[in-house]
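new request in #modeling-help
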Amino acid sequence: MTILVLAEHDNVSLKTDTAKVVSAAAAIGGDIHVLVVGADCSAAVSAAQSLAGVSKVLVADAAQYGAQLAENVSKLVVEIAADYEHILAAATSIGKDTLPRVAALLDVAQISEVIEVVSSDTFVRPIYAGNALATVQSLDAKKVMTVRSSAFDVVASTGSAEVVNLSQTIDSKTEFVSQSLTESARPELGNAGIIVSGGRGMGSGENFAILEQLADKLGAAVGASRAAVDAGFVPNDLQVGQTGKIVAPNLYIAVGISGAIQHLAGMKDSKVIVAINKDPEAPIFQVADYGLVADLFEAVPALNNLV
Amino acid sequence: MKVLVPVKRVVDANVKVRVKADNTNVDTTNLKMALNPFCEIAVEEAVRLKEAGIATEVVVVSVGPKAVQEQLRTAMALGADRAIHIETDEELVPLSIAKLLKAVQEKEQAQLVIFGKQSIDGDNNQTGQMLAALTDMPQATFASEVKIDGDMITVTREIDGGLQTLKMPLPAIVTVDLRLNEPRYASLPNIMKAKRKPLEIMAVADLGVSLRAHQTVLSVTPPVERKAGIMVSSVEELVDKLKNEAKVI
């Protein structure tokens, strides 16, 4: 049984999601290959080679793959799919874009956002914003699935997999125009040990500065609820929730967030949850380990002084 | 230009579902149902394209039991011109839905198929991409801006870490994210008008598509509940708890 993991990377570096998906692959059991599709992605390839448990890193390095577009990447995966019983990717924007295309071309269903491997054909996944967990047994010959990386630990970097270059270059009707990524010195939401998140209660984008100061002091990432993103306080990539990032840090500090079920879906697996809200009835307090009913504009600066 | 909008009937976003006692599924009996919020955004975008003179016809389609006609009427009240109901009582996986939609698309030949990026019940996030694969159309998922210029479409997408813009020829598939638009409310006259708009009913067999089972749901269980926490009375107490009890800072 051989498992293919589609690497999550930005050509320059391999994302830790890949090490977590490899961990899910190891739980299935079998030989693990990682596929790196990109352009000038040798740094990501070297990092993938060192993932423990990976025996081969397949590399498709060509200009056509630079933007990692679903249309041609999926066709490439299908070309090599005959060798694999499982095809996995992280449930990131790239994985979610690409893998359903792979599954459909292979005429198999996809199992999305796997959080637990029960056996080689049975997996657990959340449905209804995490309000229920479905245990699903695949009847397909090939199992195509996205993995929620926050549910798995990273594998060690002690491996030394061999590299196999793929020569196929496949064109795409889709053309990459541009990309604007938020520049930040803070940790990424998916990898942060601590996250400080703000909601509608922050009142404005400028007010997020007090959360950023606290985040910098704690070495934390900054997140936001949908309400804060919709109000234009912060960009969309900070959104934590059912349809944004799913996170599980050691400490999640929710500030001015009421706690809609869609937001809870994105953070309720955090180890410790702190909620600061002036409304004692806010649903966020029902999932918080420590709740503080207070005006955030007083509590957050005070917290910043004490930590 | 014709726009096809596949839509889904789901439990209302504000309802917290419960798992059935026998752990076979969630209990949706007597729950408030609605048009999936992402589908609503897709319908709104299609209607705006029509209002802008770019689209000439907006067709909505849904797969499911008879009750989905309620959501098809809602979509028509929002401005869709006509509806197609593919009737089945079976719960189908996204791949099977995509196969049915492919048959519809072959007949309708829409230039743009615009979807919600995911339904808030299954949270699969697959159907749009799967239809794109089956029809070999280019796709732009998680759209926050859509611009059509002649036979090309330019889409800004919400991706991890920021935004990405892609350009592709029509026909194409777009799946929409939350910030593409803010859907309108259906007015009473439009709700009345929607009742007279054409709604075609088809059986799965009419489309000549053969479907098979792909998975078995062994159980549906509630997630582990978090233990109730405590309320602290001051920032000092909070910091003390985080440092000395939880030991996370």
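bot summary: Chain B has one domain: 2-215.
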